[in-house]
TrEMBL record:
<dbReference type="GO" id="GO:0016020">
    <property type="term" value="C:membrane"/>
</dbReference>
<dbReference type="GO" id="GO:0006629">
    <property type="term" value="P:lipid metabolic process"/>
</dbReference>
<feature type="transmembrane region" description="Helical">
    <location>
        <begin position="304"/>
        <end position="321"/>
    </location>
</feature>
<keyword id="KW-0443">Lipid metabolism</keyword>
<keyword id="KW-1133">Transmembrane helix</keyword>
<dbReference type="GO" id="GO:0016491">
    <property type="term" value="F:oxidoreductase activity"/>
</dbReference>
<feature type="domain" description="Fatty acid desaturase">
    <location>
        <begin position="150"/>
        <end position="400"/>
    </location>
</feature>
<dbReference type="InterPro" id="IPR005804">
    <property type="entry name" value="FA_desaturase_dom"/>
</dbReference>
<feature type="transmembrane region" description="Helical">
    <location>
        <begin position="280"/>
        <end position="298"/>
    </location>
</feature>
<dbReference type="InterPro" id="IPR012171">
    <property type="entry name" value="Fatty_acid_desaturase"/>
</dbReference>
<feature type="transmembrane region" description="Helical">
    <location>
        <begin position="152"/>
        <end position="173"/>
    </location>
</feature>
<dbReference type="Pfam" id="PF00487">
    <property type="entry name" value="FA_desaturase"/>
</dbReference>
<protein>
    <submittedName>
        <fullName>Omega-6 fatty acid desaturase</fullName>
    </submittedName>
</protein>
<keyword id="KW-0560">Oxidoreductase</keyword>
<keyword id="KW-0812">Transmembrane</keyword>
<keyword id="KW-0472">Membrane</keyword>
<comment type="similarity">
    <text>Belongs to the fatty acid desaturase type 1 family.</text>
</comment>
Length: 452
């Protein structure tokens, strides 16, 4: 059976091909729209709940909630689409290779962790230091290319160097998750040093990032990215300048929004617990010392133009990847953010995280950080074991995974649709809420390619 609410674009499909484990007649739909208990379908996410009596008991309900999507009845020749065909249609629309099925309620994060091979958690010092060697070598090569490149090749040299220095971030990222070395002092030293060229204070970032993993895709709690709450957006009515800044920030400037996140989250002592402040101060002292010594030295040797060429432009390249990677990892029209009382760990980590393939040179320089689903299943998996862990997830839980290969359609979907939180639709775009102010979004829709 199938029913559709046009305003919320909701697809409801009947009996599912895999029965619920343990014989339970309970299904939980990951977008948080409905639950089947007994013989009643309970619709959630609407101001008034609706109850539909089912004529017969159904093992599992399959649901997909999306902001904008064609009805399965709209297929060519009026042919009804199966659930798999409909998800495939959504995948093509959003620029995904595969959109995962919702996870049944009886699956837990521990079930997924226990299914992984034990060796993917092993720390290998040789492989760990190999990542450091790759990053140092590629970064040095990038600086050499900048020094020798004619002006018209500088953008290529900056792109390489910015990507290489992103590898430093990934090394520090492993250190923060205690997956770089068995010696924790070594991890703290290497992590701090790896973050210095990025002007990132290691301990403040680590504290905030741990909360991102603990509360991934939880509204008002996730410290990485989240949709803008409509109430917050409406509060900017009295401040047109801030409202415009928000629209530009979530639109055309989104690939550099991590700069704002960096400034807001990592230098304000009031944002940290009293037990964290001492370590935060040490990290801040390291960063400011690096700036006080490193920047004047660069300027002394190469001038202000040299500071721009050798530090600022690669740093902007790093933030491009930092922003792009982060928003692709957890942002799509079909991936919901949940209030704390509705949040489910396995849904957020397995079904709400995106694996995205990038060109091979980016994957190598950035140490497979975009093999991201296993990293959210367990942050203790070292970066060099992520591919083996992902292969295991594909074999055991593949039908639940969201996977993509980087493409323009994917980026266009995120930057022109995924703006303001809406419980029924997950996201509402700025141009739906305030078309007269959303010229930046209209511009992106016009100029961004549709290639997938």
């Amino acid at each position: 059976m199938a029913c559709r609410l046009a305003d919320s674009v909701f697809l409801f499909k009947g009996s599912y091909e895999n029965p619920v484990q343990n014989g339970k007649n309970v299904a939980h739909c990951s977008p948080g729209i409905c639950n089947l208990k007994g013989n009643k379908l309970v619709w959630k996410g609407f101001r008034q709940q609706r109850h539909l009596q089912c004529k017969k008991k159904t093992t599992l309900i399959q649901a997909v909630a999306v902001p904008v999507a064609p009805s399965p009845a709209d297929a060519e020749n009026g042919k009804q689409l199966s659930d798999a065909e409909y998800r495939k249609q959504l995948s093509e629309r959003y620029g995904f290779r595969h959109i995962g099925e919702p996870i049944s309620e009886n699956v837990t994060l521990r079930d997924v962790i226990d299914s992984l091979p034990k060796q993917v958690f092993d720390i290998d010092d040789v492989k760990a230091w190999k990542t450091v060697l790759i990053s140092v070598t590629s970064y040095a090569l990038g600086l050499f290319m900048i020094s020798k490149a004619p002006w018209y090749l500088l953008p290529l040299a900056w792109a390489w160097t910015g990507t290489a220095v992103t590898g430093f971030f990934v090394v520090g990222h492993d250190c923060a998750h205690k997956s770089f070395s068995k010696n924790k002092l070594v991890e703290d030293i290497v992590g701090t040093l790896a973050f210095l060229p990025l002007i990132y204070p290691y301990e403040p970032w680590r504290f905030k990032h741990d909360r991102h993993h603990a509360k991934t895709n939880m509204l008002s709690e996730d410290t990485a990215w989240e949709p803008l709450p409509k109430e917050e957006f409406d509060n900017f009515d009295s401040s047109p300048l801030w409202r415009k800044a928000i629209i530009y920030g979530y639109g055309p400037f989104r690939p550099w929004m991590s700069i704002g996140h960096w400034l807001i989250w990592h230098f304000n002592l009031k944002k940290f617990r009293p037990s964290e402040v001492k370590r935060v101060k040490i990290s801040l002292a390291c960063v400011f010392t690096f700036m006080a010594i490193g920047w004047p030295l660069i300027i002394y040797k190469t001038g202000i133009i040299g500071w721009i060429k050798f530090w600022l432009m690669p740093w902007l390249g790093y933030h491009f990847w930092m922003s792009t990677f982060t928003m692709v990892h957890h942002t799509a029209p079909h991936i919901p953010f949940k209030a704390s009382e509705e949040w489910n760990a396995v849904q957020a980590q397995l079904n709400g995280t995106v694996h995205c393939d990038y060109p091979q040179w980016i994957e190598i320089l950035c140490h497979d950080i975009n093999v991201h689903i296993p990293h959210h299943i367990s942050p203790r998996i070292p970066s060099y074991n992520l591919r083996a862990a992902h292969k295991s997830l594909q074999e055991n839980w593949g039908r639940y995974l969201n996977e993509a290969t980087w493409n323009w359609r994917l980026m266009k979907t995120i930057m022109t649709v995924c703006h303001v939180y809406n419980k029924e639709q997950n996201y509402v775009s700025f141009d739906q809420l305030t078309p007269e102010e959303s010229h930046p979004i209209a511009f992106l829709k016009k100029v961004m390619p549709e290639y997938a």
